[in-house]
Amino acid sequence: MNAGHDTAPLPVRLEDFAGPARRALPPEVWDFIAGGSGEELTLAANRAALDRIRLVPRVLSGSGAPDTTAELPGGRAALPVAVAPMAYQRLLHPEGELATARAAAAAGVPFTLSTLSSVPVEEVTALGGVTWFQLYCQRDPGLTAELVRRAEDAGCAAVMVTVDVPSMGRRLRDLRNGFALPAGVAAAHLDPATTRRAAERRSGTCAVAEHTAESFARTLGWDDLARLREQTELPLIVKGILDPGDAATATAVGADAVVVSNHGGRQLDGAVASADMLPAVREAVPPSCRLLLDSGIRGGTDVLKALALGADGVLLGRPVLWGLASDGAEGVSRVLGLLAAELRSALELSGCAAPADAPWLTTLGAGR
Q1: Active-site residue among 93, 189, 211, 263?
Q2: Domain segments of the chain: what residues?
Q3: Helix, strand or coil, per DSSP, at residue 277
Q4: Domain 16-55+75-350: what homologous superfamily?
Q5: 263 a catalytic residue
Q6: Fewer CB within 10 Å of terminal CB in the chain, N or C?
């Protein structure tokens, strides 16, 4: 017995970081990062889909200790994992995106910086590491082109354009809270006057949804994606695709990679789980297209399941924010370190020497 000791148990799974994060944050900030849209049916479906998948391990493969490195857009990474784009990280920790980027660089995985970052792209890329810039196309095409040039000039390794947000989903937790950004937190890449006007109208609304509605293009089409492809020589990643036909069109237009994603259950409530669409999307795109899974990843076995279904890697979202809220860069480092340990174990126990071996595995329960 260790009577009198208040030391918290050592986290042994990524979900263990959620409790400390929730205790560290104001309730409305926790709701902002944890919640989904509508009745949160798709948010729950993402986990249910991954939990439903079963792997058939192989034995006597002679693989030994696995190599976890993988080829992702912009270069080779220590894990088949990139940190997902997530907005306004200074809500969770004073260093915000700087802390997360520092931890991602130390772990050897790409960090995706959101257009809605609370830290400018130049400050993030100055830390080193691999940075992907997530782009929300603006109503003014000139501002979109300026953001792309800014990302290139800062040294970003890829541009990830999000295509599933003509407007923000109705996130009921935020609406009930009348959520608005506090003083000192703003979108570093957008006009601050837009954020300020939305905050002044916050009664009965979500100010974040209002100020993005003033900025984001709502009528994007495939021609816009083609023009974006012409504007940059960086690898182009298209995030927010669920339909296999859309994935095929994206690659035909020039996308180098596709992220199968329902925005973590934060856009259309009732949309299909991302993992359920992964096999069909893999069949629809050429082998040269890098395929990433986003939405619901909570551990190394989830990463292995995504790889077995045809993904080249995954985006890790909310668990990174849990680590950031609980202990800044050190917390994010612990999250990524634990994920790496889980993935090494999952690869070895399944008979895979490396992530590229995962499609060898038989899966049951996918795509239902």
Answers
A1: 263
A2: 16-55+75-350
A3: helix
A4: Aldolase class I (3.20.20.70)
A5: yes
A6: N
